[in-house]
């Protein structure tokens, strides 16, 4: 099938490459010339495992190309809308400027029977406006939210947990759903549930899923606060409640909390939209989820200060991690960098290391020290703070090896990802979050 993907950011670039890899003829459109040039050369504009290989295979097959001209979307039967919806400056709502601009640009190229499949994360109600906007062209709107995680984007796109398609009732909506089922046939045949809903429900599914995940993380971090006060261990607690299959262990990872380009902004936009709908109180708890999450960053800083005897000024602190999570170079709303910046603000001599995100971090926070080499970052440190659970720190850093490099064996495990017993056995003062 011929597809276009409008917007080649995180979501769009991966979607375009993944769709070409399952046999579709895909054009990716973006206004950013540099991004289009990079993608056309088979280079991923951001760190994402497997993406470069997929791009190169797609380009070589002739089934994948990229363009800055919306006119190149003409002739595709399905157009995926994958532009960004950032947080509105000065507010919590989503900024839909890019969505509306992309739809306006696409309208002249739509033909009767084309399907416009919205993938961007939008406030509920956006789809009906877009549907009305494209109605005169004879094209049909379907809402098809995307649930991919950074670092797993290719896997999540090709083997999703579920596919959700929101269409309006009637023949054209049913036909649009069938066309999308065909687009995703390999995943559907491999067993991915294909759920057809109305458009508003499909929009809400995305917001609700992100709100639930954020709530689960903040729930365990709230338990960490209690565990700290009670002298208990939140990681053992998470294991124990996680064995209950109704709860499950995933997303009960405690520590400095969630960040990134999605969860923080999406829960705020979700709450803002609920308020517009007169149902702010229904999701009032999301403000608490946000507040708990941000408190954990303060707590991590406090633990470092305490571990250093109350004074961090002039102390060398090795910060292991800058990305908001492993397998990503994304530093948007990164809790890791937030902790580093605050420690620097207190006068610490902060040295940040990260396997992928140093260049991005340096561009935004030039006041921090950086060291590409993990061991050089550790050398002479008075405290080591693990803030992104990369395998380089979690699995491949032995406490004995690190101990030989530092000035003092003090480690703060902001992700509760280290083997506390092993670090203690090697003579380290180990401080987890929500652990005795
Ligand atoms: C998230 C959703 O998972 C995805 O479905 C949606 O499409 C986009 O938003 P992503 O932002 O890529 O994906 O990252 P995710 O893996 O969900 O992690 C988000 C943040 O939560 C990270 O900062 C991570 O470190 C943190 N996290 C995650 C925890 O603190 N504890 C956990 O147990 C899990």
Your description of this structure?
This protein has 436 residues and is α/β, with parallel strands linked by helices. The chain has two domains: 2-197, 3-Layer(aba) Sandwich (Rossmann fold), CATH 3.40.50.720; 232-436, Rossmann fold. It has helices spanning 10-21, 33-40, 51-61, 97-106, 126-134, 153-158, 171-183, 185-189, 199-230, 234-242, 263-276, 285-307, 335-345, 358-364, 374-378, 391-394, 399-405, 420-425, and strands at residues 2-6, 25-29, 64-67, 78-81, 115-118, 140-143, 163-166, 194-197, 316-320, 349-353, 369-370, 383-386, 410-413, 429-431. The radius of gyration is 23 Å and the shape is globular. The mean pLDDT is 97. Bound molecules: uridine-5'-diphosphate-xylopyranose (UDX). The site of uridine-5'-diphosphate-xylopyranose (UDX) has 19 residues, from helix 9.
Q: What are the main properties of this structure?
A:
436 residues, alpha/beta, Rossmann fold, 2 domains, six-stranded parallel beta sheet, 44% helix, globular, binds uridine-5'-diphosphate-xylopyranose, UDP-glucose 6-dehydrogenase, 6-PGluconate_DH-like_C_sf, UDP-Glc/GDP-Man_DH_C_sf
Q: What is the mean pLDDT?
A: 97
| Silhouette | globular
Q: Report the total helices.
A: 18
Tally of distinct domains: 2
Question: How many beta-strand segments?
Answer: 14
Low-confidence stretches: none
What fraction strand?
Answer: 5-15%
The appropriate CATH architecture of the largest domain is 3-Layer(aba) Sandwich
Largest sheet features: 6 strands, parallel
Main structural class: alpha/beta
What fold name stands as the CATH topology of the largest domain?
A: Rossmann fold
CATH superfamily caption of the largest domain: NAD(P)-binding Rossmann-like Domain
CATH class of the largest domain: Alpha Beta
**Strands across the major sheet, in which order?**
3-2-1-4-5-6
Question: How far is the N terminus from the C terminus?
Answer: 57 Å
- Specify the helix fraction band: 40-55%
Bound molecules: uridine-5'-diphosphate-xylopyranose
- CA radius of gyration is 23 Å
